[in-house]
Write a structure and sequence with these properties.
Elements: H1 2-31, H2 38-48, H3 63-76, H4 78-86, H5 99-125, H6 127-133, E1 136-138, H7 140-165, H8 171-179, H9 183-210, H10 213-233, H11 236-254, H12 259-287, H13 291-296, H14 298-307, H15 309-312, H16 322-326, H17 329-338, H18 372-379, H19 393-402, H20 404-424, H21 433-447, H22 454-475, E2 476-479, H23 480-487
Antiparallel strand pairs: 1-2
Helix pairs in contact: 1-2, 1-4, 2-3, 2-5, 3-5, 5-17, 5-20, 7-9, 9-10, 9-11, 9-21, 10-11, 11-12, 12-14, 17-19, 19-20, 20-21, 21-22
Length: about 500
Amino acid sequence: MGVRLRANRFALYAGLNVVFWLVVMIAQAIGASPDPRILYLMLLFAICSAPLIKLDGLNGRYALIAIFALAYFVMFGVGDLSALAQGAITDRSPSVLSETEAVILGGGTILFLCYESVVLISDLTGAGIASASRGRDWSKYMVLRVGLIMWAIGTYATYKWYVYIVTDETNEAVRKGLQSLTQYQTSAYILAQMMQPLGILLIAYFWRIYRSPLVWALILFICALQVVIGFVADIKGLAMLGGILAIVTIVLIDGRIPKLWLIGALLYVLIVFPVFQTYRAEIAHNRGLARTTVVANLGRVLELTLSADRRVNSGRDRAQTFLERSSLLGSVQTIVEKTGNGVAYQRGHTLSPILATFVPKIVWSDKPDIPTGQIMNKEFHLTDSDDVFISPSHLGELYWNFGWPGVIAGMALIGSIMGVIGSRFNLAQGKTVTRLLVTVVTIKQVVVGFESSIAVIYVVWLRSLAGIGLLHLIFARTSVVAIWGRWEGAKVPSSLPAQPGSARPFPNLLS
């Protein structure tokens, strides 16, 4: 059975790569690009589709690496695929593979291999199954109560922070906002904002485990409210937070793809995302309206935004599309080509804030706060503004700090971290609050946050894990076996989870 299953997966993997090769050939024929970078695209797709060979379900041990692989291809492959179809000429090396492409391909390969190694070690030692059998979960209504409290506190703090404290995205506004608070107040606001995604996840977990219609309505309200807050704050990630967390929770708890939710996400990308682009260009930049003014005149601001949509999102100087903004290839190319050639290596400077992750600012008032995105903009002379953040991506920042050794060691470490989470906290071996929180926070920070600077992402991730651990110690009291029995219909399972690989793949995909 196992041999036949692996053969089927290899056949599917090979078939997908053949289909992609045909897509690339058609795109090249349409665009007639003289510099198509076909080998790079083929190798990148082969690497990013490799997790399919081992994928053991949408919430299994390899789910995390599969999600990362999809994000990695979007970040580093979709731009070239689009340029290929449009006949655009890339400005990379005329050689078969440029150094930038080698960094992307090599870094991805190292990460995937280290993830696989950690999962194999976990399987051999039985660590994942042992942790599942010993697990404990929260009681039913404690999940909802704590979730509502954390969401309410986090939402209030987020709204207050981005509307009344930091009134716009300039450095001056940030400085004034921080100066208006004491160090204790600043720490409290940061902690409270970290509660919001955890609160949403707890509510979503309750919804999927206990199927409450009222909580389903609450989830929809939370998603809509996040869009409004994200619109006012001009932060697209904040606007998408509710929907993303709901979709990921469904996938991880049910092990299936939520088709209606994905349709809603697609509509958001096609309809709502351009509105956000227009708002940033027309309201935040051109008119310079403070967020307090936007809140007081929300209807009028929305009307002005919609009226300027065509002008901002069409023509030669249009705003970038969702996929264009998701592409990080240009940032990595800039870093690889110029670092050591006019731009100095950082040698760990931008990573140093991670060392002070658990030291509060009230204890260390001069704790380093390094705006990596602004430093990159300045060091590489990308724009004249001091307020512009350029995302280096984790891959680019690793190269910027230490060159190839940084890419090799850093991507190996990231892959190993994700391997530990994927093998020890996957929800196929036990549906608990703690497993959901750890997995989703890792997806949000380590996978989706891969586009950003390393220190900012990992400081939040580490603090979030510490908070999740504390919550687990306080609230996890109910046996996991009892939770499984109630979730499956008051039937306690006759045995603990089967050995990895024994279950059929994608058991709930089409249910």
